[in-house]
Amino acid sequence: MKHRIHTFRAATMDEAMEMVRRELGEEAIVVESKEIATRRLLPWPAVRQEIEVSAQRASSSKSSAKKDRDQKTQSAAPRTIQTLAEKMSASPAVAETNLAVVVEASDGSPQDNNVLAAPPAWLKPDTNSSSPKTREKPRSVIAKTTAPVVPSPSVEPVKSTSEETSSPAVEPQMASLQLLLSQLVSQARLGGMTDIPAEYLEHYLKLTAAGIEENLARDLISRVRRQMLPETSNFTAAVQDMLTAFVEQDIQCVSPISPTPGRREIVTFVGPTGVGKTTTLAKIAGHFALREGRRIGIITIDNYRVGAVDQVRSYCEILEVPMRTAANATELRSAIDELADVDMILIDTAGKSPSDGSKLNELREILQVASSDHILLVMSLAGGASMLQNIAASFSNLLPTSLVLTKLDELVTCGCLLSVAHQISIPISYVTTGQDVPAQFEPANATRLTRLCLGLDKI
After folding, report:
1. Alpha carbon separation from 444 to 88, 241, 418 (Å, rounded)
2. Which residues pair with 442 in a beta bridge?
3. What's the alpha-carbon Rg for the chain, to the nearest Å?
4. Phi, psi (degrees; rounded to nearest 5) at 162
5. Which residues fall within 8 angstroms of residue 84, CB to CB, at 6 or more apart?
6. Is residue 379 within 8 Å of 406, Cβ to Cβ?
7. CB neighbours of 436 closer than 8 A, spacing ≥ 6?
8. Same domain, yes or no, for 154 and 289?
9. Domain total in the chain
10. Strand 296-300 to 402-406 pairing
């Protein structure tokens, strides 16, 4: 009779094998085991590695035969499913064996072994130990893993459960084993990240789960390790405080625009298409006109995008501020002169492709007559930080004074803020967190952006 194959998932191999024993009995046959990746949402979005074991019940004929063999022998028979914990408790010499889960093949024949990497040197027993060598015996199928394959010595049959629990020396061995298993599984899940000490792994995982690039997360951990004092009492809190301080140092912000009484400020918005330049301009115009009572004038030179002028005109009518249009440098100069009695002029430009050098040069020639006090490069974070460095380089000939980062509300995590700070030397002046006008924008603050970056604050 062919038995159905059952599948079990757990965080560790020991937990998975315990589930196999509970459901299918000690005679269960492991068909396959592998490491799989599953996604979790809490406490932060991340990928979690799990062990999946496929097993089936042993055939009744095989079980009967084994019972006969057990009755004929007085010594404890080897159990079908053996874990490293059982082998360790059986004999200290077996500690040199590699991490594995042993099961008997369906036909009883010995099979090739695939095991996890050998345990670290600090775990190996004293070479001067007088413990007897183990006898060579056929090994059965070992659950497959994704770790490197190394040869593994054979082991003696283990004692029964009753014999194991009767020995008081088993408890410290089991505790030591559980620590080893936890460390090895953590190392396997991290892809062999031996350069990150175990006490920093949790902090490293939180950084990467927050969207911070791996190389930046490693750099932050290295900086913390160099400055961490060995006698630090509350280690976890100290590491978190230092990480927060380092990220805040890396995120460069500039003070928001602050018009000087009696002096007209000219602010120009530039950037690629679709990043929200016009909406951002309307938010800043609404802030100064409605909340600070400033006299605002708006000029648009966006004659390319369909409906661009009508969109700006609608905002101007709502805010009750004057509006002018310009198609070239001469018209822009005239429009600026017409708005001589306002406190601030906001200039809206057409979105330009970063790869279109001729259009960018044309825009630069037009803007030269404006003599802008502030040139805000508007970029969206919704598409990720990978392309922002190229965009900033393409618009560098317009001499932007600060960055406006838009669409933070569309991000799953805000860790890309740190990438922007490392890749682009231009400071951040504003961020936007939605489409509502004039709300959902805020002046850039290094402390606030740091907490968003580390996932400590929400939008």
Report:
1. 58, 21, 13
2. 431
3. 33
4. -65, -40
5. 97, 99, 100, 101, 177, 181
6. yes
7. none
8. no
9. 3
10. unpaired
Residue 87: both structure tokens together: 């082998």
Q: Are residues 241 and 165 in the same domain?
A: no
Counting as low any pLDDT under 50, the low residues of the chain are 41-45, 73-167, 188
DSSP state of 290: I
- Show which of 184, 210, 230 is a domain's final residue: 184
The amino acid present at 202, given as its one-letter code, is E
Cα(335)–Cα(299) distance, rounded to whole angstroms?
7
Residue 444 lies in a domain: yes
CATH number for 283: 3.40.50.300
Domain termination site, one of 160, 184, 208: 184
Rounded to whole angstroms, how far apart are CA atoms 366 and 331?
Answer: 9
Residue at token pair 């005109």: 313
pLDDT digits (tens, 9 = 90+) for 33-83: 777 776 554 444 455 678 888 888 876 555 555 555 555 544 444 444 444
Residues 37, 79 within the same domain: yes
- pTM for the model: 0.59
